[in-house]
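User: What would this chain look like folded?
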Amino acid sequence: MKAILLFYDLDIELQYFPIIVIRVLIAFIAGCLIGLERESFVDLPFSQYGAIFRTYSLVCIGSCLFVIAAKFGFKTDRVAAQIVTGVGFLGAGIIYKNKVIKGIPTASGIWVTAAIGMLFGCGFYATGILATVLAYFIMDLPHRFQKLFLRMIRKNDPIVHPLKTDND
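Assistant: Here's the prediction, encoded as structure tokens.
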């Protein structure tokens, strides 16, 4: 009887395996695209090449796997809440290093990548693809249009354009 119950889970898994494979592969591709974009504009030491790519890819796949596991045996809402909490913890470690606050775009990108993985895990392919394209566009925009962003910074920078006072 125990052997039948052991293979019952395997039977269910194999029944849904093609769907699971598609979801994980799409999450992998989405995480890779976002990770490659982030990796291409960061100057890292040679020993850390691929770290950003791996982080984004693994977060996207991991959150997808957690949602798939939740759909087949756990309460989905509780697992989703724990993913958000865990990724928030990961983001806090990225933002606050050596008593210096930096890396907010990276942390927010990882947070969005986790949400994208969760979308693919739930089977929302179109929404996940749209979110991947938007995240890529948002992260790539400052690099593609540097002059636009530099102009915006210079225009609003009080050091470059100090405020005039009535005493001038």
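The beta strands are 96-97, 100-101. If you want, I can go into more detail on any region.
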